[in-house]
Amino acid sequence: TILVFANRYFYFFWVSFFSTMSLSGYTMATSPSEIQEEYPIFSMLNKVLLTISLILLVIGIVFL
């Protein structure tokens, strides 16, 4: 049950944060060069959180 709750938090965080950031084009930086510097970090964090949420989702489905 803990994994199910953890999965929900990771998944909802990923959906809310990355969909908002991706769709709105929002970033903390304002100049194009700063945005290009931030994108690899943003992309890596996106992949890590998505992977964690998918793994926890599969574990939650298997054990429920």
UniProtKB/TrEMBL annotation:
The keyword Membrane applies. The keyword Transmembrane helix applies. Keywords: Membrane, Transmembrane, Transmembrane helix. The chain crosses the membrane at residues 9-29, 41-63. This is Uncharacterized protein. It comes from marine sediment metagenome. The lineage of its organism: unclassified sequences, metagenomes, ecological metagenomes.
